[in-house]
Amino acid sequence: MTPVLHGLTSEFAHGRAFSEVVPRANPAVTAGFTYTVASSYWERLAAVSFVLTSDGNAANRSVLLTVKDGSGVALDAVPPAAVQVASKVYTYVYARNATPVNDTLGLVNVQRVPRIFLQPAFSLVVTLTAAQAADQISAIRLYLERFDTGPEGLPIGMLAENMYVSEYERIGD
Questions:
Q1: Does 1 score more than 90 pLDDT?
Q2: What domains can you pick out in the chain, each with its CATH number?
Q3: Whole-model pTM above 0.85?
Q4: Which of 20, 82, 121, 145 has a CA-to-CA distance to 49 between 20 and 30 Å?
Q5: Calpha distance 41→165 (Å, rounded)
């Protein structure tokens, strides 16, 4: 038997997984938000969206989405396509294979979503620069692909595989 590697890679996923939309509570005014991965899953971001409502005070707000590892070190960051000015309500959308767009008519800012598996304790951090007194982020949604890491999930690492295991994984339970 030849050992084969079973697990997750950035462009191809193998194993039991499910997609889930995860809403987040609105943060305090002038604040961004953080999402931290629980210990039950490895996750991959399929999409992230939220609304930023800027108050009437003159300033150029800038949003930064950062993926950090479990020790808080940045692994990837996505700056906005453009700044947001006063008295606007923009929807920010981060999606796979997105081309950066700042639509000043439709009030949508589109960016790429980081293509990285989020391990337990990894975090997604959205920060708001030059926030004014009543700026508010709302309607936060994370569309996640979740891979179970518990006893029912896919074993990760080098495994000896035979034709029966291969057939079982191809047809499922």
A1: no
A2: 17-167 (2.60.120)
A3: no
A4: 121
A5: 23
